[in-house]
Amino acid sequence: MPILQPIVNMAELLHQKGITDVLVSPGSRSAPLTLAVVRHPALRVRVMADERAAGFVALGIAQQTGRPVAVICTSGSAVYNLAPAVVEAFFQQIPLLLLTADRPHEWLHQQDGQTIHQPGLFGHHVKRSYDLPADYTHADSRWFIERSVNEAIDLAQFSPAGPVHINVPLREPFYPTAGESFTAGPVRTIDTLRAEPGLPTDSWHRLLQEWDRHDRILIAVGQLPPNPALRHMLAKISEEFGVPVVGEIISNLADNGLFITHTDTLLANLNESVAETLQPDLLITIGNSFLTRNMKTFFRRYPARHHWHIDPVLDRINDSFQSLTTRVQASPLAFFEKLFSDLDYQRFLQGDDDDGSTMFLQTWQAADRRAAQLVFRSLRQPEDRLTDWQATQHVLANLPEGSVLHLANSMPVRYANLCGLSEQQQIDVWANRGVSGIDGCLSTAVGAALATDKLVTLLIGDVAFFYDRNGLWSAPVPPNLRIFLLNNDAGHIFRIIDGPGQQPELEPYFETPHGYTARRTAEDAGVTYQICRTATELTSLLPDFLQPGTQAKLLEISTDKLVNQQQFEAYRATLRQAD
C-alpha cells in the first residue's frame, strides 16, 4: 500500500485544514479515498448511495457550518450526478471539496468501463479544478499532491466561497491486504492568512458626500445567510436615518415593524404615480439573488440615479437592476457599521439630532402595511377548505422559536415570501436560490438537520419531494427533521405563472400529475407519517408534529390544485382592483 500513501495522507490533510464532514457514495475506484477518510478518527463520514443526493446533503451541512464539506465518489457517470449540487453551491457561494476517483488517463477511449473525461468536467461552475498524477513514486508528485490539496481547501473557503474539484486517478490495488498499514503519514499544512483592507479615507468621503446629496435612500437586501448583527445594524440605520430596508424571506429580514417585507404584493401592478413615490434616488444593494420578479421589475423600471452594491468580492460586476454606479468591496456588516458611525458623528458635529427625513420611509411602510392586509384577506377561505397558501401560513405561524426553515423552490418559497415571518420567531431561513432548481431541496434540508441540533423544517411541493426522495435513502434520517409536503398532485406553479396556464397542453406536458402519496417513502425511510386534508386537521396536528422526538416526521398536506389556482387568481384580481 505505500504506493497509495499520498492518497491516504489526504485524509489527515483534510482534518488539519479544518474539514470535519465527508459524504461518501460507495464505489470501487474510490475505495482508497473512502477507506482513508473512514479510518481517520477525526472525520465524520456519512454514506449516501445517490451521488446527486450526496452533493446536496453536503451542501446543507456546509450551509449550517460555514466550513467546506468533502464529497467522495467513484469514476464515470457518478461524477456527473454531483453537477446539480455543484452549480447550486457555486452560485450560492457554499464551500464544497469534490474528490472524484478516476481511471488513469491512458485508459480513456479504450473501452474501459466508467472512464470519461473527468478533469475540468464541472467547467466554470467550480472555482478551480485540479487533476492529480496517477503515479506517486517521484517526490515531486507527492509534493504536487500535498500542495494542491492545501490550495484547494483554502480556495473553497476564500470569498467568494464555492466548490473546488480534485480529480484523483487511481491504479490498482485499491484495497489493503490483511494486516497492511493504512494510516496517514506526516503531512505538511500550508496556512494562509488574509488581510481585510478598508476603504481609503477619500473614498469614504466621496460616499458620505453622495449620501448627503440624496433624501430618498433605500437599502435592498438579496439572499443572505442569517446574520443577527447585520439585521440589528440595518434596523438602526432605518430608524435613525429614515431609510427603508427592503427584503424578502430569503434575505433573513423578518417583520420587525421597520423592514419592508411584503415586496411581492407591494410592488405588483403599481401605477406610475405610486411607483414614483417609492423610487429611490440612491439604492444600496447587498446579498445575492432576489426572489420575486416584481422586485426586479420595479428597480429596473424606476432606476435610482445612484446605485451602490456592497460585496467583499469584486470578481464580476453584478448589475441585476441595470443601474449600478459604484461597487464597494466590503462585507455588508463592516460597511454599515462604519457608515452608521460616520453618519452619526457627522450629525453630532452639525448639532442635528433629528433631520426629520422620514417621509420616504413612512411611504414605504404604509404601502407595506396595505400589502400585508391584502395578503391577510386573500388567505381567508370559506368553511374548512385548505389550500397550499393557507397551509404555508399555518406552518410559518407555528414554527418553534429559534428553529431552521428550509424552503423548496417553485411555489413553497413564493408562498412563504408572501406570508413572511415575525422577527420574534428568530427563524433562520434557507433556500437553494443560487440556481433555483427543485432538485436537491429535500437532500439539502437533510444535510442541514445533520449539522445542527435545532429543529429543521422543510416546506416542499410534491414534484420536488418525489424528484429528490433519495435524500431519505442510505443515511439515517436525522430525528430533528420535519417535512411539510404540499401535495396537489401537480406542478402547481404552471397553473399560476403566465403562459402555460393558458395552453391546452398544460396537463400533462407542463404539470406533473402522478397520483403518489409519501406514505410508503416515509415508511421505507423510518419517518413518522401523517396526512391532513382540512384546515382543522392541520391546526390540530401542528403542535405535536413540531415537538422534538426520536424520529423524523412528515406531514402530507393534500390540497386541490384547482382550488389553489382559484385562490391565487382571486389574489391577483384583488391586486388589480387595488391599483
Shape: globular
CATH architecture of the largest domain: 3-Layer(aba) Sandwich
Q: Tally the helices: what do you get?
A: 21
Instruction: Indicate the CATH class of the largest domain.
Output: Alpha Beta
What is the assigned CATH homologous superfamily of the largest domain?
Thiamin diphosphate (ThDP)-binding fold, Pyr/PP domains
State the separation between the terminal residues, measured CA to CA.
74 Å
- How many structural domains does the protein architecture include? 3
Percent helix: 25-40%
The biggest sheet, with number of strands, parallel, antiparallel or mixed sense and barrel status, is: 6 strands, parallel
SS strand fraction? 5-15%
Widest sheet: strand ordering: 2-1-3-4-6-5
Average pLDDT score: 92
Structural class: alpha/beta
Total strands: the figure is: 17
The whole-angstrom Rg is 26 Å
Named CATH topology of the largest domain? Rossmann fold
Molecular structure report:
With 579 residues, the chain is of the alpha/beta class. It folds into three domains: 2-169, Thiamin diphosphate (ThDP)-binding fold, Pyr/PP domains (Rossmann fold); 201-367, TPP-binding domain (Rossmann fold); 380-578, Thiamin diphosphate (ThDP)-binding fold, Pyr/PP domains (Rossmann fold, 3-Layer(aba) Sandwich), CATH 3.40.50.970. The protein has helices at 5-16, 31-38, 51-65, 77-80, 83-92, 139-157, 201-212, 228-241, 263-266, 272-278, 293-301, 332-349, 359-379, 388-397, 411-419, 441-451, 462-467, 506-509, 519-525, 535-545, 561-578, and strands at 21-24, 44-47, 69-73, 96-102, 129-131, 163-169, 217-221, 245-247, 282-286, 306-311, 326-329, 404-407, 428-431, 456-461, 481-487, 528-532, 553-558. The protein has a six-stranded parallel sheet, sandwiched between helices. The chain has a six-stranded parallel sheet with strand order 13-12-14-15-17-16, sandwiched between helices. The chain has a five-stranded parallel sheet with strand order 8-7-9-10-11. Helix 1 crosses helix 2, helix 1 packs parallel to helix 6 (139-157) and helix 14 crosses helix 15 (411-419). The radius of gyration is 26 Å and the shape is globular.
